[in-house]
Amino acid sequence: MLSSTFRRTSSVALVALIATGLVAACGGSDGSNVSGGGSNGGPNVGAGAQVNLDPNATGATGSGTNEQPITPQDACADGTGTADAIPAVVQMVVDTSGSMDWVPGTEMRARNGQMSKWDITSAALKDAVAKLPASVAVGLNFYPNTNNDMPCINNRIALQIGLLGAANSTQRRNFNRAVDAAGPQGGTPTHAAYRFGEAAVADSMLAGQKFVLLITDGIPTRTLECMGDGKNAVDSAPLIAEVGDDLAKNGVKTFVIGSPGSEDARTDLSKMATAGGTATPGCSDNGPNYCHLDMTTAPDFAAALAAGLAQIAGQIGTCEFTIPPPPPGKSLDVGRVNVNYTHGDGTQSTILHDGSGTCSSGWKYDSDANPTKIVLCGADCDTVKADQGAKVDVIFGCQTADVPVK
Q1: Please, are residues 4 and 332 in contact by the beta-carbon 8 Å criterion?
Q2: Would you call 115 helix, strand, or coil by DSSP?
Q3: Which of 238, 219, 241 is nearest to 230 (CA)?
Q4: Higher pLDDT, 55 or 383
């Protein structure tokens, strides 16, 4: 039987933040077209809903409120194949300048059990990556990686971009090792570090949306060519322009987190996020609601950083899945595809197809004429991304169950 199965895990932290509209691609839970049911079937469609199911499907009546999920065991299912979530590809560009060794809000090194900004950042990064789904690919570079004034930076890859995979995978372990091996020293050559990190993600051969995540605790003190005294701010306009160009030319979006110490850089960091396509709704580059994730006024930097990373995790999660080629002798019938969702608790439901073109809930094809991907929409995208351990089955052969026409 043709059943396409793929597994997804995602961070469940701060789902409420994600649902507020910070995730543009996915809405809240209202309007969901997930038809619920138990692991052995059961009610899965709202009252008055009309669904059009293959009459051979188990428990199908063609309409009503008590349809069982369409499963690979149904007589109409006629073949199998495996698909994967389209990955998000993220290069993290992390400031490890000497000031990261300070206690947040001070210019004093941590002592007597205090936590430095780097202590907090490194722990938050490892925790955030541990919660990212297997379909996210992550790479890492720190800056400046040198104590010398000239050159002001030693660009190198701390972790090659790779899919995170399952819990305790090699890539996840190597990420933690790279973070543990880093330490604060040197100045803040942000432009050179950003260009290096952006090139790494732009050159990645992995499919999917590409991102840079820049974390910094201060103003750039060196230009791209290492000009500057390493203490005072340099002009950030060329860096901001490059971030915008990279979005336009390479499709690379840039998230920016400003840690305590970046107070004087807030306007420029906000402009970077705006140019990079990740501005928060209703923000202003001139504040007080900046367009990047500004941690400078947070009473608890650790909590704020964890929240910010979880917010970003929600935005980079994917709701797109490849459609595998049918087996020999089979062809794809776009009118006989169904998407089943097994919740983390083992219950099952069928996500209905949205043929309206609005994609406010349910699922759609990336192209009706030549589909290559299944795309979950709105509330159902949000639901599946937030369900750690969820499994989605793409079942071929049974007549597609559609969102009711209102």
Answers
A1: no
A2: coil
A3: 219
A4: 383
Phi, psi at residue 385, to the nearest 5°? Answer: -65, -30
The pLDDT value given to residue 83: 55
- Contact between residue 153 and residue 97 where contact means Cβ atoms under 8 Å apart: no
Which residue type sits at 339? V
What is the spatial distance between Cα 169 and Cα 90, in angstroms, rounded to a whole number? 17
Q: Give the amino acid at 91.
A: Q
> DSSP secondary structure string, 360-391?
SSSEEES-SSS--EEEE-HHHHHHHHHSTT-E
The whole-angstrom separation of Cα 332 and Cα 400 is 12
Q: Which helix (DSSP H) or strand (DSSP E) does residue 212 occupy?
A: strand 210-216
pLDDT band at 55 (very low <50, low <70, confident <90, very high): very low
- What the block records as the tokens of 116 is 């430095």
| 155-210 confidence digits (pLDDT tens) | 999 999 999 988 889 999 999 999 999 999 999 999 999 999 999 999 999 988 99
Cβ neighbours of 103 (radius 10 Å): 18
Backbone angles phi, psi at 320, to 5 degrees: -110, 135
Nearest-5° Cα angle at 289, 285 to 290: 40
The residues that bridge with 211 in the sheet, in sequence order, are 90, 253
Closest among 236, 307, 304, 225 to 269, alpha carbons compared: 236
Alpha-carbon distance of 39 to 68, in angstroms, equals 10
What lies within 8 Å, CB to CB, of 40 at 6+ separation is none
The answer to whether 257 and 120 have CB atoms below 8 angstroms apart is no
Q: Around Cβ 121, how many Cβ atoms within 10 Å?
A: 28
| CA–CA distance, 90 with 317 (Å, rounded to integer) | 11
